[in-house]
Amino acid sequence: MPSTLLLALTTTTGPTRLPPSTLPSTLGPTAFPPPASHPHGASQPGNARTQEYQRTATIRNQVNLKKPTLKLQNVPGSADRMVICFTFDASAPCRVVIALNAAEETRKGCCLRSEASLPPALAYDKGLEQKFPRSDEVVPAALTLPQSRLQELLSLPAGGDRMPVVIRLEALTDEGRADGRDLHSLEPGSELPHWVQTQTTYARVLREEDGSLGLRVVKQKIWVKGEAYELQEIYGMEQNKGVAMGLPATATGDGLEEVDGNECVICLSASRDTAALPCRHMCMCHQCASALKTQTNKCPICRNEIESLLHIKINKGGASKPA
């Protein structure tokens, strides 16, 4: 069950470094600031500076929407209306909340502000590869979108505080279950308490090449113990552990070069277990990274400046532990 993410976390208001966690971990999306823009080229002698190591923190993630599966689909029997569809995993009972043309208030527990009342949340049991909506489920009318509504969402300006489509998967934390909490006590889109863990996916409506309307994920966040974190990928991690949750191994989502194979790009023999930050290329073994940091401050893949190194200890049995 993919119920854990290996994360180096960045809050939505600024970077936060956490001590190593004792939770078990598997591989998944990782939260970092976006890569800095630097001119390409080899570093000059004397310009190298010692890079500091960061340790990973692990978080038990109970819900995950698979970004490549998010799409719009025609409602059976209707030529004008469409419904949002996606596949997700849940290691605990959860519910799905969808908001349209909504803004998130980070300082108010990530509550969602929408022009209209949010549709009722839909409850799901735990399980892998779950479909939303279920094939046997009657989709609430509020979740079926006419073409006119989709055109309104398509015209929303990029970069504004409102997002056309917001999908939130909610589950109780272990503490919440122990305390007898109930997700049904929360109004959809309301301020999130500490006893709830969520993953929120933000998407835009766009026109596909064939003229049809589709959805494209802009970002994902998780809410854990009263803090919100944005998820990003580590490029090269999937080849070491199979395809991780999120983007496939063949795509990075932002145009950065992916790393093929699982060998260190320097010695070409040891397995890579160290990522350069902020570019997030996991391309070196720990030994080569230790030697490299005293000689150059450039990533071997993209040649961007390395600000720090993230060492991820990967066990052959399948679990990952903080370095």
From TrEMBL:
PROSITE patterns per record: ZF_RING_2
Alphabetized, the UniProt keywords read: Lipoprotein, Metal-binding, Myristate, Transferase, Ubl conjugation pathway, Zinc, Zinc-finger
Task: Kindly indicate whether the keyword Amino-acid biosynthesis belongs to this entry.
Answer: no
Under the heading Pfam families, the entry gives: RNF157-like_N, zf-C3HC4_3
Write out the catalysed reaction.
Answer: S-ubiquitinyl-[E2 ubiquitin-conjugating enzyme]-L-cysteine + [acceptor protein]-L-lysine = [E2 ubiquitin-conjugating enzyme]-L-cysteine + N(6)-ubiquitinyl-[acceptor protein]-L-lysine
Q: State the EC number(s).
A: 2.3.2.27
The GO molecular function terms of this record are: ubiquitin protein ligase activity; zinc ion binding
Q: Which GO terms describe its biological process?
A: protein ubiquitination
The record's annotation in InterPro entries points to: LOG2-like_mRING_C3HC5 (IPR045195), MGRN1/RNF157-like (IPR045194), MGRN1/RNF157-like_N (IPR058981), Znf_RING (IPR001841), Znf_RING/FYVE/PHD (IPR013083)
Q: Where is this region: Disordered?
A: 9-49
Its top-level enzyme class, in one word, is transferase
Q: Where is the RING-type domain?
A: 264-303
Q: Does the keyword Zinc apply?
A: yes
Pathway annotation: Protein modification; protein ubiquitination
Q: Which family does it belong to?
A: Belongs to the RING-type zinc finger family. LOG2 subfamily.
Q: What is this protein called?
A: RING-type E3 ubiquitin transferase
Q: Can you name the source organism?
A: Haematococcus lacustris
